[in-house]
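Sample 1 of the test manifest.
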Amino acid sequence: MIHKNMVALILAGGQGSRLGAMTKKTAKPAVRFGGKYRIIDFALSNCSNSGIDTVGILTQYKPQQLSTHIGIGTPWDLDRVHGGVTILPPYMSEAGGDWYRGTANAVYQNITFLDQYNPTYVLILSGDHIYKMDYREMLAAHTAAGATATIAVIDVPLGEASRFGIMNTDGTGRITSFEEKPKNPKSTLASMGIYIFTYADLKKYLKVDALDEKSDNDFGKNIIPAMLGAGEKLIAYRFEGYWKDVGTVESYWEANMDLLKADNDVKLFQNDWKLYTVTGSIPSQYIGPEAILKDSLISEGCVIMGEVDHSVIFPGVTIGANSRVVDSIVMEGCTIEENVIVNKSILLEGVTVKASNAVGDGREIAVIEEGRVLSGGGFMK
Amino acid sequence: MKDYMAILNLAESENDIRALTTNRPIASIPIGSRYRVIDFMLSNLVNAGIGNVGIFSDSNSRSLADHLGTGKPWDLGRKNDGLFLFNHGLCNLMYTDSKLIKNNMEYIYRSKSSEVILCSSYMICNMDISDVIRAHEASGADITVVYTHTKNADKEFSNCFTLDIDPETGDLRGAGKNIGVGPEADVCMEIFLMTKDKLTDFVYKSTSLTSLTNFYNLIFDQIGNLRFNTYKFDGYVSCINTVSSYFKSNMDMLDIDVSNDLFRSAERPIFTKIKDEPPTLYVKGCSTSNSLIADGCIIKGKVKDSVLGRYVDVEEGASVENSIILQNVRIHKNARLSHVIIDKNVDIDENTELRGNEFFPLVIEKKNLLR
């Protein structure tokens, strides 16, 4: 078997229940984002752009859309002769079957997958974060330090630090202690949920953790503290750049709005670090004679006759004359007829807003469920 | 329906469209914001269920080969059949399409299909070829030829074959060339249906006679000897063989009825190569109207009545009107463009003013690596 230096595992089984209607039919990593992507495209494109050619995707909650999206990995150049992308759902064995009980348990259940490639390092990623990162640089830091584990961290404002897993480090970047959502944070270095482990060490700790019946089988709660307790060398890798965990409707909306500047922090237009996704054969967008466009992202296949202000419009959306879409996210295949106002709303796939209706009050974000037809006139929240 | 294979014959005259074909054949000229000329006919074939397409190219085909790849975007990246690309290794003036097809007869023999669709790429249309097949099979004719009736023969379809069709019986009486003397004509769309055996006959006849004859001439030579059936196509057609027809065809696509007919059909989509560009960003202060715009653009200036390809930047104060801008072009601040065609990878400097007109659009050629 050909040896791989580093294999990536993307944890993509989460529900993302705080995203409400958006994750009613699909797992959070498959939620659409940024005008033509799905959230997992960021992690997958990062892998591809970092030269990682072997990626396992751990799925559990409503995986159908995610599996269809990933396919054999062609958009990310992950349809490879050796390696490539493998979808790893929970499975049955002679002794019965088990759901993935925690992040560490999910990886533990796939040790056979990892052993196939006999990697020196394993990269553990979340499938639901928005960021661009070169994992090669993180691996270089890991090998230079000769660490057991390297955890990517980002500096957060002190006031928000209690929402994250916080790493306390010494002067050299070595992690001295880890606190999950501390009330009185001693540091502002938040874990991004991105880990590089030296595989031989990780395997050892996973096996011990699996035998511990009281364990939550979680990287943050169990594996990292166990490693620290045993005096292993864990280092923090500081990431500078845009990173967002779109856990709530508000943060999801904000992260989309963050893209609406030409020099946006996500660097959507960065040509040497492209974001890849599944693209259909759709014609170019047509902008009508009376259209007004301000600070908006618009995708292929759209026909825009009205006004779009500070919004993200996915492929194949039609916006009728005299209609106005403000501060909104309109997903694939929505139809907005004439004389409609859409204000601070998220329209999921295939929503139709009939003529002369209004959606959203401009204060709270209105989320309209997939395929709904809004008619009858008047105000709708 | 019998089993059909297709031959796309790219021996298309480039005499009047040289500015756009210095680096590529007509088949791979970008058109309609995100397509290449060949995408239309290739998609028409695929949408009719044809899974074996041989492309016979006679000129510098680097750009074409790059565009087609393994044929995957057209679902032709197959284990069995799929896409085959044949081209001249050397630029031999004695070569014609007949000779090229002859040289690759093994491909035609080996294909399991019994019937052949022979066609060109430069007739831009969205055609239900399965309907042509049905009509061909119902007619019992040896050869079906597809044509369109135009009222603009004095402006378009320059030098294309015209057909003389008996208005009473619909029989094909003869064929000629459109030299633009009158507005009305029945123009041959260079789509022929016949058996593989018939095609083979033509190939051997051609090489025993002369290798200098265009293949379609050989077919029309048989009027009177073979049974011809004619099929009239009523949808939008444009022949991309002059700079002005290229300009007009792109502008036609700004008409929502034309674009609905050409590339917004749900049953017959037009497929093309995927490029992974982000959505297009419209920055406050921009003004965009009546334009077809591909993804990956950043629009800060004015774009009116124009067609923009992928990755076009229009900076503040710049204005683009009645123009066709191909992929990866940057139009710097306060540049003003009207009736121009800008080929790929060109930078238009600040304050530049470029102006053509409807009949003579100004063409700025593709940026050459050596420049």
